[in-house]
Structure formats: structure tokens, C-alpha cells
Amino acid sequence: MLALLAAGCGSRSVWYPPPEQRASLSLPSSFPFGYFVTMSDPNANAYILGGFRDQSEGTWRWTHEHPALQFYLPRVPRLRFLMDLTFPDQTFAQTGPVELTIRINGREFDRVRYGKPGSQEYTKETPWQWLRADAVNTVALDPDKTAPGPDGERLGFVLSRAGFVE
Amino acid sequence: MQVAAILFGALFTVATATALGTLLLGKACADWPIRFTVGAGALSFLVLMLGLSHLVYPASFAILGVAAITACRPWKVRRVGKTIGRIGTISISNIILFVILIAYFYIYFLKAIAPEVSPDGSSYHLGLTARYLREHGLHPITWNIYASFSQGVEMLFLFAFAFGRHSAAALVHLAFLVALVWQMGIWGARHGMAWVGLCGAALVGLSPVVGVDAASAYNDVALGATAFMLFSLLEQWADARAVRLLPAIGILAGFGFAVKYTGWVGVAYAVGFVAWKSKRVRPVAIVAAFAFLLVAPWLLKNWMWVHNPLAPFFNRYFPNPYVTVEFEDDCRSYFRMYELTSRWQIPLAATVKGTLGGVLGPVFLLAPLGLAALRKPLGRQLWLAALVFGANYFSNIGARFLIPSLPFVALALAMALTTLPGLALAIVVLHAALCWPAMVAKMVPTGSWRLALTPRKDAFRLRDPGRYLKTYLYYYPVCELIDRVTPPEATVLTFKGIPDAYTSRRILVDWESAANQVSARIFQSAATGMGAPNGRLSFAFPSRRLRAIRVRQTATGTDVWSINELRIYSMGQELPREPAWRLTAQPNSWSIQDAFDNSPVTFWRSSETIHPGMFVQVDFGTVRELDRVVLEGATDQYGVRLSLDGQNAAGVWRRLADRPVAGEGAPYLGFRRAAAEEMKRRGIDYILCFPDEAWAEDVRQNRDLWGFTEVGSAAGGRLYRLP
């Protein structure tokens, strides 16, 4: 009985080899950008076609009048466009309610009216007729109003992350 | 015909046990309840041996039973008449008491012979029993912690189940209550206090939680009966010093442990009592040896099959891949208090309110009066036994966990009450009135475990048993569905305990093993996003030539550390994992490969709350140049604090980075499908989802993304086949 009990009472480290590798869910690292961007990503600039400040402020980045992004979309059954954005109090006080026009690959996909400041999540199913599989797709996010910022720039909204998810 | 099979299964089991007990005790003890219980211990052991030898067949049980009954000559049965005579003379009080007891035992009988619908009886007690019969023996079961408990009573259930299925098992458990009540009467008579014995027996026998437990395929009443038989037999041995009683004492003590781990106190009590009274080694050795005989197989089975003799407890001391310390700690924490805020609430909760899973009955609030019995040596013995057999109570404060000490408290209370003429009878009559099922229903909240009066037509199968099962077991139709639409070898993952005693498929309940928990987390993180591996912790450092790296966790807290993938980079390129690499972790090294399989859905998890000393280590087998290590994982590990060490070519460990930089990765595309495929890889064929579960809607709306096919629905649940 004592032998039985003595068999435990230990923190044993056992060594293992790496297991069989599973097929990757990520895009190959040779791709300059993927299907989703977070503004904290050091590679975020690769997704930006224009209309953003040059640098992120930690996890977010200011947009200007005509922000546009690009994504590489692999072929998957279904996708939703998703973004986390914020209308800060100080700019919203100047613009009032903002209507955002979302264009995908140049076609108007949606218009959304934001009637109050603060953080928002936008997500909408995006049928494949709007998208190109295994190819680069563009998304433009045009606010109808912007506020004046320092150095004469126009400030639209703050983007934390955007892209396509299942 | 079904009723005949049920009755045969139960009576044959009780008769075989009694015969074995009679053979073991001979003339040394004539009390049939003790013979039955000692024999139950022996029969349980023999069935376990048959189970381990894969000889679980009705025919082998029939041979065993017939052999035991034949070997036990009929003259011993006549002793039963003598014991009835000893319990008491005919008086108005006795007649009232007997009428009450008979009325209660009739409703217990109806409940026990009806289709089994108790929560644990219809799931693991009989689910495992049915599996053992189907598989003709015991096999390693690592997906259900209940298979690791000692299953002494389940072995008796298995014997009965082979002939009469579920209800025969419940009737066997009820036999323990009959034996207990009877022996309490005998005990009183033996001490010249027949009335005390009868009143004490009535207090126990009428108690609602005792009644519903005894009439179900549970084991608490069996443990209570075993404890009291042990107490009685030790008394008889102390009087007679018959050597023949010593093996039986050992068997009873060991059987207590075999019934339920908490019965270990019986072994200590028996060994201590015999040592104290005899002051000799030999009697103690005999008792200890026979107790060991019944205890050891359970410990050895667990040691060999789940690497922990006391599984599913003490996992900190016996680390194993099957039950996590995290789970054990959570369970211990809950069962110590349930939903109570103070232990002072226990007396009212256990006797009246029913918030501890049943009620003992309000009369047990008078238990402190029983302390008056301390004035007498017998009273002191009763209270000592009550303390011993209640020693484990505060590890699980459920009302039924008081049952092992209840007979002793009841007798002590009866001793106190009988000092005033008529008082004991009045209290028992009051107890009977308050404990009648209709009264209990008014007293306790909905959901508290209690007895409902069983219609005779349902008990005796004069109506379709399926109708009764559907009325009292909400998820019974789910079992019917599973058996109807899945192949015999199917494995189903569920997040609700379903009455798996009514399906032959392998049911994995999410929390019932470490592996089930992992599969459930894989599924949940894909369905709800909770715990999804979007977090990135990046250690960057000047390029070094290193033989090994170690990520150390240095904080103490309530979080649990996990890593979905650990990737190592050099100049922006990930180092491919090589066969020469060696991986380990502390704790829970068993699942470390899941952090190196290139799949974001699988993960290594510390499986206990964070504390310094935890680490994950990679040994490259040779020197490699690297400059970055990235941990992909859940973002909700707020308390985790990590640093990175590296071992250079000379074998010297140096700090590479004090802390990582946190970031966020893109949500993975194809994550649901990858999760489904991983679950399939882990042996899961189907998943059961109910509308109140957080993931049900995601699965319903995204079946195409999961690759699931809905194959049926029942009781609100949808059953999906995995791709």
C-alpha cells in the first residue's frame, strides 16, 4: 500500500517529440497581407491603401476622409465583414451623426448611420458576389462628415480592426 | 414477466449475499442483516473479480448464486424468526410503529421497482453497470471520472442488473435499508432497549433523503447500513471474542470503502477498535488483511488504469492525464459549501429546507437532545461512531452524506427521547407526518431530491414504462434518439448529464474527464469565441545560438495558463519543428504536444491555477539560432506573467526577455471546421446541443461551416453528426 502511495507524490516532467503537423489555417507567410488586420499589427500598413494616419496609436489608428483597405481572401464557404470602430466624443461633437458608406471592390455594400459617439462593432454577411476568392479585395469606408484635426488634417473615426471573418 | 425478472434479480442478489454471509459467519452471528451485509461485501468482491476476468455473464452470476445458496444450508434461515421475536413484544406503540414503517416501505418499494429515474442512478451508477454487462467485464474507462470511484455497490447492482435490469438494482439498494432498520431494532433489543432501537430505526427509515436514496440505485444507504453493521458486529466481537467474526469485520470495513471512498473511516474504526479491545496483533492483522482484500482491488485498478489509486481525488499528489487539479479544486470548493454562505446554515438546510439535495426531516433538528445519551456508555459509543462515520461530511455537505452517521444519531436521540413516556412515539408519529411525500413536497424547493408517490400501474409495468420515464426523466427521449439514429459504436459529446443508463452509446459529458473538457473547450472556443487563440505574446531578443528555451510563469493567481501554439522564429522565419526537438511542461506535460501541432484549435493548458514554477520548455537537441518566440493563445489570461530563458551551447541558462509584448492576431478562417475535425480525431462522432447553451445558436446557423449534419432532435436538444 505504501509502495502504491509512494508511486505518486511527484511532479514528473516527461519529454515528447513534436507531433504530426496539422494543415495550417493561416495564409502562407509569403503573402504581404491577409484577410483581417488589427491596427496593433506591425504589418498593418500593408493593408492600408490610403486615408489613414501613418502610424497606429497602440491598438487603434485615426482615419481621414477616404480610408481604404485591401485584403487577400482565400476561398472559404462564407464570410462576414467585421470592423471595430470608434467615434470619439471630441470629433463627434463637431460632426454630429455620421453616415458611413462601405464600398467593397468599388461597389456600395452598405450605409450605416452612427447617431452617437463611442465604440461600435459593425458586422455583416458578405455574399461571394461581392468578393473575389483567392484574390485581393478592397474595402473603402467613407464617412460623410469629418472633423478638423491638428495640422489641418481631417479626422473621420478611429479603427481598431477590420477584415473578413467566418 | 418484466416484474418477475426484476424481483428475481433483486431477490437472487439478496439471497446470494445472505448465503455468502451465512457461510462466512456460521453460528458466530445470527443477525440476518449482518449476514446479508457481510455477504454483500463478499459478493461485491467476487463480482469485481469476475468483472476483471471479463466473465460478466448472467450464467456466471447464476452459477455463483446457486453455489452460494446451495452451500448455505436452510437451517440458518430459521434464525430470522428468532430475530423478529427479539425486536419487540406486541404493544400498541409497536403496532403503530410497524404500521408506519410498513406504509413507508411500501412506497419505497413502489419507487424502487418502478423504472429508475434518480439523477445518478439513471446516469453513472447504472450507466456504468450496464456497460460492464454489455462488455462482459470492467475495462479502463478514462472518459468518466465516476468509473474511478470504488464501485462496491455497483458490483451488486451488476449482479442484479444481469437478471432484472435497472429496477432490480434499485431494489437491492432498498434491501440495505431494510437490513439497517432491522439491525437497529435488533441492536436495541440486544441492549434491553427494544423501544429505543425501534424508534431510532423509524427515525432513520422515514427520513425523506434516506427513503429516496434507498429506493434508488445509489450507495449512501448501503454505506450507512455497512457502517451500522460494522458497529454492531464489533460490539458482538467485543462480547464474545469469536475469532470467526474477525474476517467478517474486515470484510465489512473494506466493503465500506468499496461502497464509497468516504467509508475508509470504517477501516480505521474497525482496526482501532479491535486493537484497543484485544491489545494483540493477530486479531488486528486478520481484520486489516480482510479489509485490504476488499480495498486493494479498487486502488490497484485505478493505479493501473488512470495512474492514481485514489482517482478522481488527490490529483496533485498523483498527477495524471485524466482528471485535472483545476477540476478537482473546483469540485471540492463547491461541495464544501454548495450555495450556502455559512456552515451554520447546514442544520436547517439539511433537515428542513432541502437545499443540500434532500432533507433528513425536521425532527432531526432535535438531534442535539441526543447528547443527553452521553451520560451512558452506550450513548458515548453511539456518538463516537457518529463522529467517526461523519468525519468526511464537511468535504461534501450534501444531506445524503449524513446518512452514514444518521443511525447512530437517531439511536442516541431515541435514547434521550425515551426517558419521557410517550415522547418518543409522539416524535416518531410527528416525523412520519412531516416526512410523507406530500408534506415534503410543500417543504422543499422544486428540484430538491425527494420521493414522489409512484402509481402502482407504473411500478408494476401495467403501463408503458417509457411514459413514466419521459415524465420523470426529461432527457430520456434524448437517449431514445441517440440509440435510434446512431450506430452502436457511436460516441456523443454532451454538455448536460443525460440518463446514459438508457443508451448503449458512449456518452461523453463535458466535465467528466480531462479529455472531455479539452474537447468541449475546442468546440466552445470555435462556437462562442471565448478562449479563441487570438492573443499573441511575442518575446523578441537579439539573435542567439541556443540549445533550449523555457517560458516561465512567475505569478500566483486564479487564472489558468494556456498556449495554443508556441512558435520560434529566426530572422522572421518560423523554425520548422524537427523530430529531434523535445518538449515538456510543468504541470500537465501530457498535452504539451498540442501546443506544437500547428493547429490553433488545440492547446496545452496548465490545468491548475497559476503559481510560480510552471514552465514550457523546448530542447532543440542541437544549437539553433533564434531571435523571437511567439505564444498564440486566449486573451483572457490576465494574471499570467511570463519570462523567457534560453540555454546556450555550454548548457548555461540565461534570461532572454523579462516579459512579452502583447498583440492580437486575426481570427482564423476555417476555425469551426478545424475544431470539428479535431473533435472527430479525438473520437467524437456526434454532439448534442440544447437551446439554452451559449453555442447552440452558432451551431444551428453555421452547420455548413462546422460540417455538421443534424440527425434528429428530442427534448429540445439537437443531435449533430460530425464531419
In short:
With 166 residues, chain A is mainly β. Chain A is built from two helices and eleven strands, in the order H-E-E-E-E-H-E-E-E-E-E-E-E. Chain A has a single domain, classed as Jelly Rolls.
CATH top level class name of chain A: Mainly Beta
Distance, first to last CA of chain B: 43 Å
Number of helices of chain B: 26
The largest pleated sheet of chain B is described as: 8 strands, antiparallel
Structural class of chain B: alpha+beta
CATH topology of chain A: Jelly Rolls
Which chain pair has the greatest contact?
Answer: A-B, 42 and 49 residues
CA-atom Rg of chain B in angstroms: 29 Å
Strand content of chain A: 35-45%
Overall domain count of chain B? 3
- Low-pLDDT segments of chain A: none
Strand content of chain B: 5-15%
Kindly state the number of beta strands of chain B: 15
Give structural notes.
The complex is a heterodimer of chains A (166) and B (723). Chain A is mainly beta. Chain A has a single domain (32-165), classed as Galactose-binding domain-like (Jelly Rolls), CATH 2.60.120.260. Chain A is 7% helix and 44% strand. Chain A has helices at 2-6, 89-95, and strands at 36-38, 48-52, 61-73, 80-87, 98-104, 107-114, 118-125, 135-143, 147-148, 154-155, 158-165. In chain A, a hairpin with a 2-residue loop joins strand 5 (98-104) and strand 6. The model of chain A has no long low-confidence stretch (mean pLDDT 91). Chain B is of the alpha+beta class and 723 residues long. Chain B folds into three domains: 2-74 and 82-443, no CATH class; 479-527 and 674-721, no CATH class; 533-664. In chain B, 50% of the residues lie in helices and 14% in strands. In chain B, strands 3, 5, 6, 7, 9, 10, 11 and 12 form an eight-stranded antiparallel β-sheet that branches. Chain B has a five-stranded mixed β-sheet with strand order 2-1-13-15-14, with helices on both faces. A two-stranded antiparallel ribbon of chain B has the order 4-8. In chain B, helix 6 (121-135) crosses helix 7 (152-190), helix 7 (152-190) packs across helix 10 (220-240) and helix 10 runs antiparallel to helix 11. The longest helix of chain B has 39 residues, at 152-190. Chains A and B meet through strand 1 and strand 11 of A and helix 13, strand 6, strand 7 and helix 24 of B.
